[in-house]
Each structure stands twice: as structure tokens, then as C-alpha cells.
Design brief:
The protein is α+β, with helices and mostly antiparallel strands and 158 residues long. The protein is 46% helix and 13% strand. It has a 5-stranded mixed beta sheet with strand order 2-3-1-4-5, covered by helices on one side. It is elongated.
Length: 158
């Protein structure tokens, strides 16, 4: 069941569109921001609110790689895997991040702190390799910089 806060935020987004269905991505993002991911129950509740079938809304949710359909860690690590990052050492960066976290793409650390995901582009090709942790972009990555960043997120108290 949607909370009153979620419902109010979604209705505010719906009001910006001529068609309720057009607000589906924004509604999914609102739900995810509150819950960390979008469950089957959330899909059903949202679909009723938006005048869509659960199958239609699920197809939208699973098309976009930043809508999470299963629980994720407290911090989302998005590692750019486009050509610019490949040229600038992506493979070594991926191996370092994956090794430090002890997980591969699509996995979450045992303590639930980090989920590692690939992302097609972070728009920082001139400063590759790049990754994003939550909403912060990090560029010109080196193993030492990654270690420092992960250490910061490990000790952030969240």
C-alpha cells in the first residue's frame, strides 16, 4: 500500500502530464526513493493509481536499468562501461572495485552496504574511467582513489 507521502508526491508528478500514464517513470522513481527498490506490491499499487496494468508498468520498470526490482545495498555503485572508460582502463578498475567489494555486477555485499551495477554512460568521457556512488560522480579513477572512496562510504555511519 502506498503511503500518504508517496501518494501525494506521485499525484504532484501526475499533475504535470496530460495523461496519468506518462508519469509512470517519475512515479517509479518516487517509490524507489522511499523504499530503496520497487516490489511487485509497489507495481500493483502504482499501476492502479496510474491506470495501467501491472504488466505494462513492470515492462517500463524492467526496461530502465536504474529502477531496481529487487532489494539493493545502502549505496549503489554504478561503474561506467562505455568505450571511453574501456580505453582508459575500465577492466582494471572493474577488477579492483569487484575485488574490494567481493561482488560482481548485480550483486550486493553481505553487509548490505554496496550493490555494484554496470551503467552504459555517465557522461564523463573526458575524465574516464568514471563511476557514481549514489548521486555522486567520481572521475579519473585509480585503485588508490577507489580505496579512499569506498572507505569513506564504509564509515559514513549510514
Amino acid at each position: 500500500m502506498l503511503t500518504e507521502q508517496e501518494r501525494q508526491e506521485i499525484e504532484a508528478e501526475v499533475g504535470q502530464y496530460a495523461n496519468r500514464r506518462a508519469a509512470c517513470i517519475d512515479a517509479l522513481k518516487i517509490l524507489q526513493r522511499h523504499r530503496g527498490w520497487v516490489s511487485d506490491e509497489g507495481i500493483r499499487d502504482l499501476s492502479c493509481m496510474l491506470g495501467m496494468t501491472p504488466e505494462e508498468l513492470d515492462s517500463v520498470a524492467t526496461f530502465y536499468n536504474l529502477i531496481f526490482r529487487k532489494p539493493v545495498g545502502r549505496h549503489i555503485v554504478l561503474l561506467c562501461n562505455t568505450i571511453s572508460c574501456w580505453i582508459m582502463g575500465y577492466e582494471g578498475i572493474f577488477n579492483h572495485v569487484s575485488g574490494r567489494l567481493g561482488i560482481g555486477f548485480g550483486q550486493t555485499t553481505e553487509d548490505g552496504r554496496f550493490t555494484l551495477l554496470p551503467i552504459p554512460c555517465l557522461g564523463a568521457c573526458d575524465r574516464a574511467p568514471a563511476m557514481m556512488i549514489d548521486d555522486e560522480l567520481y572521475t579519473d579513477l585509480t585503485p588508490e582513489r577507489i580505496d579512499a572512496l569506498l572507505s569513506t562510504y564504509r564509515s559514513d555511519g549510514t
